[in-house]
């Protein structure tokens, strides 16, 4: 099984090398500022007014600064789309709608939205469409509207499958204690991540390799290879973290308080992303009956990379926002030139249409390869055993 894991890592890294060069190379210029609730647009001294003006009709709405991924993504947007306005929704759908309306009123021709609530965001997309504005759904697919023009994303099912495969590769014998956690029910990606994880874990649950310790609903469906949306929703509703570390910690504490000592020992934790993974694994590590933890994550955050080096988190899936942002730039440039974007390779159905979409590559990071990947990432480096940002 370890051979398969190493093959998966190498294959994904090789694919990333070729796919990254495939479309939408980002520029090195930087500009724009950001604001939590209103537009703030300032150009840096090393960006020409012509460059800044090129993307001044682009608006970007990110969900929250509370998750460490999004300020990192902001930096990538600033480099690739100088002059664009970047706003945060602060985890609030009403603020998100206000942000979109503000961008429309200021003349935005293309708006990039990473929705706080994938279904609620349909209303603001429809409003933008009525004003002739193109909408790019970023990372999370906006649901139930025909007015999403493009979707830039990773293979979210593959993310969950890679997380699950890591747990499978490290399982020993039968009866291994499995604790399941998921993202937010309002985020379509949470369903895709769990769908991918279930496709790998379910056969190993059915044959007794794993025993689900914290979800009675998932356990009742252990012989169901493919879950429908309703079944996924029931499970996710029972194990949701809402992408919030505090919620994840509280849920993990409740799970451990209910579990008996013989349901602990060596545990396998399907954690949905890095921020929740650290909260969950810290909680498990504090339990005297937990002797070893295999835990997953995603997002390649600085704190979790340090946890991986220190042996506190087992793995993460790196989904490079630089690649997604490069795809956004390719789409924006193509819209401006009345061309078809070169990075569109597939479609995703959002309940109303098949949305033209990208599928960016993934990189699996474990303690075995973390040092080389960190030092070659362009984001961080290791200095005296510490993961530090590259200035």
From TrEMBL:
Q: Region entry Disordered: which residue ranges?
A: 26-51
**Superkingdom:** Bacteria
Domain Periplasmic binding protein intervals: 58-326
Q: Which CDD domains match?
A: PBP1_ChvE (cd19994)
Signal sequence, renumbered to the chain: 1-21
Molecular function as annotated in GO? carbohydrate binding
Pfam families xrefs: Peripla_BP_4
Low complexity bias (residue ranges): 26-50
Q: Does the keyword Chloroplast apply?
A: no
- The entry's protein name is Periplasmic sugar-binding protein
């Amino acid at each position: 099984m370890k051979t398969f894991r190493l093959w998966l890592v190498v294959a994904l890294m090789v694919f990333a090398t070729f796919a990254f060069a495939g479309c939408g190379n980002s520029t090195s210029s930087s500009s724009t500022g950001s604001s939590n609730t209103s537009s703030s647009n300032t150009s840096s001294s090393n960006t020409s007014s012509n460059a800044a003006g090129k993307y001044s009709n682009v608006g970007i709405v990110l969900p929250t600064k509370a998750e460490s991924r999004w300020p990192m993504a902001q930096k990538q947007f600033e480099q690739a789309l100088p002059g664009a306005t970047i706003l945060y929704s602060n985890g609030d759908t009403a603020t998100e709608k206000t942000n979109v309306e503000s961008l429309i009123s200021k003349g935005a021709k293309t708006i990039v939205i990473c929705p706080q609530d994938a279904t609620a965001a349909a209303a603001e997309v429809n409003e933008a469409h009525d004003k002739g504005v193109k909408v790019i759904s970023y990372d999370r697919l906006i649901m139930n509207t025909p007015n999403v023009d493009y979707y830039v994303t990773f293979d979210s099912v593959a993310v969950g499958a890679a997380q699950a495969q890591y747990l499978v590769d490290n399982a020993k014998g039968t009866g291994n204690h499995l604790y399941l956690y998921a993202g937010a029910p309002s985020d379509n990606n949470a369903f895709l991540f769990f769908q991918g994880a279930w496709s790998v874990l379910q056969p190993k649950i059915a044959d007794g390799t794993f025993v689900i310790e914290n979800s009675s609903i998932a356990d009742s469906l252990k012989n169901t290879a493919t879950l429908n949306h309703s079944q996924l929703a029931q499970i996710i509703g029972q194990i949701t973290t809402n992408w919030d570390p505090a919620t994840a910690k509280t849920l993990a504490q409740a799970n451990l308080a209910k579990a008996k000592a013989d349901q602990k020992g060596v545990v396998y934790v399907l954690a949905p992303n890095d921020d929740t993974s650290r909260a969950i694994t810290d909680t498990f590590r504090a339990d005297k009956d937990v002797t070893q933890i295999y835990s997953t994550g995603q997002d390649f955050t600085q704190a979790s990379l340090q946890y991986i080096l220190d042996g506190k988190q087992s793995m993460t899936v790196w989904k490079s926002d630089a690649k997604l942002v490069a795809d956004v730039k390719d789409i924006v440039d193509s819209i401006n030139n009345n061309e078809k974007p070169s990075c569109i390779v597939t479609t995703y159905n959002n309940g109303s249409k098949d949305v033209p979409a990208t599928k960016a590559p993934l990189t699996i990071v474990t303690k075995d390869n973390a040092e080389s990947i960190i030092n070659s990432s362009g984001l961080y480096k290791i200095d005296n055993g510490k993961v530090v940002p590259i200035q």
